[in-house]
Design goal:
3-stranded parallel β-sheet, Arc Repressor Mutant, subunit A, two-stranded antiparallel ribbon, 5 helices, globular, alpha/beta
């Protein structure tokens, strides 16, 4: 199973510390396959992962599509809106588009939310 951790809040110092830990583990020969996506705030996460984008992500995870046009038809949505959503999710690393196909890059998303 491929996991991706979504981190909301925290600080740049927290991000740097996590990076340094992973770097040290890699230097010691440990395979490091952590995948993290950090957001400054809940609003930043909500802006990326809207309800429609989450529905799209879940659909693509269960049913990879050969193209954005096929995905738009499957979701009964306008091509342009699906294209924009796919582009945003690809930029974030949640979707990939090898040879034009659309597939999810993770099997599970976990969230860590810092309140303070």
């Amino acid at each position: 199973m491929t996991d991706m951790q979504l981190i909301v809040g925290g600080s740049l110092a927290d991000d740097a510390a996590n990076f340094a830990k992973a770097w040290r583990r890699a230097e010691q020969g440990e395979a490091v396959h952590e995948r993290r996506l950090a957001f400054e705030s809940w609003d930043a996460l909500a802006k990326l992962l809207t309800g429609e984008r989450f529905r799209l992500l879940k659909h693509v995870h269960a049913h990879p599509e050969p193209s954005i046009a096929a995905l738009a038809r499957s979701l009964s949505r306008q091509y342009r809106r699906v294209h924009d959503d796919v582009a945003a999710l690809v930029a974030a690393g949640l979707l990939a588009r090898p040879a034009g196909a659309v597939h999810a890059t993770a099997d599970r998303l976990t969230a860590e939310i810092t309140l303070g």
